[in-house]
UniProtKB/TrEMBL annotation, chains A, B:
HAMAP family: PurK (MF_01928). Its EC number is 6.3.4.18. Transmembrane segments: none annotated. This is N5-carboxyaminoimidazole ribonucleotide synthase. The gene is purK. Catalyzes the ATP-dependent conversion of 5-aminoimidazole ribonucleotide (AIR) and HCO(3)(-) to N5-carboxyaminoimidazole ribonucleotide (N5-CAIR). Residues 111-296 form the ATP-grasp domain. Pfam families: ATP-grasp, PurK_C, RS_preATP-grasp-like. Homodimer. Pathway: Purine metabolism; IMP biosynthesis via de novo pathway; 5-amino-1-(5-phospho-D-ribosyl)imidazole-4-carboxylate from 5-amino-1-(5-phospho-D-ribosyl)imidazole (N5-CAIR route): step 1/2. Keywords: ATP-binding, Ligase, Nucleotide-binding, Purine biosynthesis. It comes from Pontibaca salina.
């Protein structure tokens, strides 16, 4: 399929969390139907989707029926089992494509890919044994951080090492999973670029946002980010470089460390990204609609910002502040409809709208 | 129920057209579930709602089951049968309340109500017989417009009279339905105020928009409207006057003619209004969320505008322009997911975002 899909077509979305939920609303705004596939019952996205399938990732019959009912397949998270993708790909294109998933599912592969493009990353080493961890620590130094190569997010599957003595404990915490050691980067702040590439190879970027994390989870994104004009260009060019190398279709999040030596790529996410939520209230076409436009073969929005925005995540019991937040002027609430509040769980976010700077 | 509803509660929406669809999305953004009740199969709102009931307005069992599943009832259009409301009201509050519906369901009652508040309307007369039409035409003059008292919208159920000789033909066109004759008003332009009143009696208005109609259907709304500061105050004060008189809860649309003698009320609509769609891209809290906030007892948004907007309706085959519109910068598309295009049918709208004036 290379012709643009027309309104009325159905977009299959793998994963029914808050990102799937906001993708589904964006799809509806363009006249598309959404069909959510999620192993968990009552996914948040199901409340705003035309159709929901609740089935495990390895349920071949459910996957085939899902595929039959949609016109294109996309996803809200990168850790989809390869076998699932194999089944779906027999029916419909998966956008973004398999290469982006293959690379971003493994931190080691991702780092190698980025360095292959000539981009800077933190120093890293492949860790299979305690001995290789100890050797790598001598090479990279401390502090350093040991991460599972796969299935990590929001600081999960990570252990910080402040001296070589922490090696045994950190290695044990990985529970035998393949891991990567990353050296620390001396950076002044973190920014991210939410970039998109269309089916025809056109590229559009939103203005970079500046991210602050708390307890390993994104806390705020502020737009515009503190960047020199040169850094801003670099950020956008390197994002485009990544998109083109992957022959990418859709929205990609690129996290960058700002250092005195230039921009260092922290990680990439082949999907809409928490640090792009500000676009919902700052742009005519937000990151969710941009992603949908790309996967259905429509022209991309140009990423133009008509307001400054500060996005703040509502994590866990932050949701109890909703009554106060609802009364704040120029503040847009976005709640995810999650039934249960848990520590560290993303329950919603607010976008505080400011006059364009 | 006077306590605010909490996220996770369910809002029952009568009517599943585009207004119900956009109300449902706004409800989801605040963490609420929506349950749509509509007699027609596959209503546009159903594609973004947690639940849909397809049943006629007089299906008592379906209405009772619907009512049991929701925490509050609201509606997207004013012509809901009285008997339906009687059944639902046994279970849950209906917001906005019955009085607003009673008045706005009948053009004659509405005009009488508005004049009772000291507001100006077009000259009008109750028409039951051809003889009363002829007498009223002598009194009010021509041109004039004969309208059914009930169930009219978008220019339907209306006949224009340019001389007293048109009386018999126009009267026959009403097919015996009770009617009202309205004199023409010499106005320079039409504006509307989208006003809201909360459960505690708080009132908030969006900036008035200026409306242009084509073939009896809204074509564009431009914000800001051409109004003097005095006219702007008048518009907001009279909207608040109407809201308070009705002990109203929710969003109300007030259409006004701007004349050299001041503002004349054309009509009121006890619901979100086509001329308020611009708020989706100009305000942190749009008219749909404002309505939901009111009916769940939350604080209202303050109506503050952070951008100028020109809204254009996409009527009938306008939908064929989507590919061009999607490529326009600073233009937000909102399509309604309607399967079939018909002449005069509202298929979507665009909001063109401009820098705040």
């Amino acid at each position: 399929m290379t012709d643009p899909l027309r309104p009325g077509a159905t977009i299959g979305i793998l994963g029914g969390g808050q990102l799937g939920r906001m993708l589904s609303v964006a799809a509806a705004r363009l006249g598309f139907r959404s069909h959510i596939f999620d192993p968990g019952a009552n996914p948040p996205a199901g409340e705003v989707a035309a159709q929901v399938t609740t089935a495990p990732w390895d349920d071949e019959a459910a996957l085939a029926a899902f595929a039959d009912s949609v016109d294109v397949v996309t996803y809200e998270f990168e850790n989809i089992p390869t076998a699932t993708l194999d089944i779906l790909q027999r029916h419909h294109p998966i956008r973004p494509g398999r290469e982006a998933l293959r690379i971003s599912q493994d931190r080691l592969t991702e780092k190698t890919f980025l360095q292959g493009l000539g981009l800077k990353t933190a120093p890293y080493a492949d860790i299979s044994y305690l001995a290789s961890l100890q050797a790598a620590l001598r090479d990279i130094g401390t502090p350093a951080i040991l991460k599972t190569r796969r299935f990590g997010y929001d600081g999960k599957g990570q252990a910080r090492l402040d001296s070589i003595d922490d090696a045994a404990h950190a290695h044990a915490a990985m529970q035998g999973a393949p891991a990567i050691l990353e050296g620390f980067v001396a950076f002044s702040h973190e920014v991210s670029v939410i970039a998109a590439r269309g089916l025809q190879g056109d590229v559009a970027c939103f203005d970079p946002g500046e991210n602050v994390h708390r307890d390993g989870i994104l806390h705020t994104t502020t737009v515009p980010a503190r960047l020199t004009p040169g850094q801003r260009s670099d950020a956008i060019l390197l994002a485009a470089n990544i998109l083109n190398a992957l022959d990418y279709v859709g929205v990609l999040g690129v996290e960058l460390f700002v250092t005195s030596d230039g921009l260092i790529v922290n990680e990439i996410a082949p999907r809409v990204h928490n640090s792009g939520h500000w676009t919902q209230n700052g742009c005519a076409v937000d990151q969710f609609e941009q992603h949908i436009r790309a996967v259905v073969g429509w022209p991309l929005g140009d990423g133009h910002r008509h307001a400054d925005v500060v996005m703040e995540n509502l994590i866990g019991t932050d949701i109890d502040r909703v009554a106060t937040l609802a009364a704040e002027p120029d503040t847009a609430l976005h709640l995810y409809g999650k039934a249960e509040t848990k520590p560290g769980r993303k329950m919603g976010h607010v976008n505080r709208i400011r006059r364009l700077s």
